[in-house]
Design goal:
By secondary structure, the chain is mainly alpha-helical. The chain contains five helices and four strands, in the order αββααααββ. The strands form two sheets. A two-stranded antiparallel ribbon has the order 1-2. It has a two-stranded antiparallel ribbon with strand order 3-4.
């Protein structure tokens, strides 16, 4: 019964990629890190409040709320290959948990990184 659980977890990881919880970095097809620092953007609603709080002569130097809300969208992240997704899943797992397993078993408990 592990196959449905594994497939569901892989789909979940793809749905949150990229995020601060799951954004793997690879060099030469080897996993380097599971997370990368995320730049936080100023929400347009906060921007609108800040612009309204400034005196008119200062606010005239800022782009309008519409321009700020319709800023260029950053490029989409690279797509993960199946091999990269597998490496990320294995890196999230905990090894050595089970006992009395057949020889050759990976002895790895997969984990979703509790990102909810």
């Amino acid at each position: 019964m592990a196959s449905p659980h594994t497939a569901g977890l892989l789909a979940y990881l793809l749905s949150i990629y990229p995020s601060k919880e799951f954004n793997p970095t690879f060099e030469n097809e080897k996993l380097v890190s599971l997370t990368q620092p995320q730049e936080s953007a100023l929400p347009s609603s906060v921007y609108a409040v800040l612009q309204a709080a400034l005196p008119d002569w200062m606010a005239s130097f800022l782009p309008s709320v519409v321009e700020a809300a319709t800023a260029p969208v950053p490029p989409s992240p690279k797509t993960l290959t199946p091999a990269q997704l597998k490496q990320g899943l294995l890196a999230l797992g905990t090894s050595g948990i089970f006992s009395d397993l057949p020889t050759g078993s990976p002895n790895l408990l997969i984990f979703n990184n509790a990102t909810a």
